[in-house]
Request: fold
Amino acid sequence: MRLPEDMTLPEEFVPEVPPEAPVHPRDAATVMLLRDTASGPEVFLQRRVEGMPFAGGMTVFPGGGVDRRDADTSVDWSGPAPSWWAERFGCAPGTARALVCAAVRETFEESGVLLAGPDARTVVSETSAYSEARDALASRELSLAGFLAEAGLVLRADLLRPWGNWVTPEAEPRRYDTRFFLAAMPPGQRADAVTTEVAHAYWQRPAEALEDRQRGRCGLLPPTWVTLTELAACGSVPDALATEAVGGILSALPAVLDDPAEPVSRGRLQSAAWLSGLCLAQTRMGLHHQLAHVLGGTFDLPHAELHTMLLAPVMAFNLPEAPATSDRMRGVAGPDPVAVVSEIAHGYDGPTTLADLGVPRAELRGIAERVVAEPYPNPRSLTVDAVEALLDGMWRGRSLTGGG
Reply:
């Protein structure tokens, strides 16, 4: 992704004389808090106080450097293990543990949002009772492990999702190796600006934040600009989460098909499948699921095999009418997501066409008529002829690339 040509850093960010040897970057974590609204998802942003040693006056997401105590293994933890995070961020498990703890701690310190709960299935709905602990965390009088233990809370690592990794350029005197996380705003909680590091905090649609930078109303560092651009392509919080889920499945599934007993790939696939289910629970079914129900119910077809067969053709049918989704798919699957999914679907030992499953070709128009009569929500409007043509392609098993 190319940065805007007019994106330049303030003079005070660029040292007159670069250090003789690059400074070793400090591990850091930053969290994009997202919430859904009627006009689309909003992200929580903070304008840092002018004169701060790093990114003073810039608009950023909550976050900060790792504290050595963030690596404390006594933290009561729920969600993907540190080894899972280590694989995602390319670091040691101990570093990964510290990064996740730093993400939770810094988000609470800087915004008052606490990704923890009384047990592994709940999250606190109101955080004012922990205001003294928040101050003690910010002043380093209290560690995250100590706070969670005293409050009887479990760290909810499953509420965080990995997003990106940015390292400050070598010419900078103060450098960070920052891992970016995504989290949906917990119900009932409120994000605020009660921190000495922030002059102003607010919720804003990512596209509006990008426009503010273009009009000179705020300053963005390159990682923030890129991340906001990625988030602007998401129509909802589940959209943002689904991007990671798709990437996880497409990267892990081929390895599992090659060696079903290999534990690391199986774990990655299970995690991506869990996240996919979480997204599915927050959105509505479309044409793919409707076809599976109508075809499967009519002809008593095997559910998993049918879903596998339907996915790539329905993607090819719908993606031209869903450009934002298409862009996100290309970001994780490459220039031709349909071809990638189609190749994986044909890579297992099973039926690959509706003809293989015994569906009579003469029945396809009747199936199309039933689908169009009571359509599920779908990006592309449906006609009987279009759906029949889609089904006929799946019956014949035509080669798939791109969309159409």
Q: What stands out?
A: The beta strands are 26-35, 42-48, 59-60, 63-65, 77-78, 116-117, 154-156, 161-167, 176-184, 198-204. The chain has two domains: 19-234, 284-396.
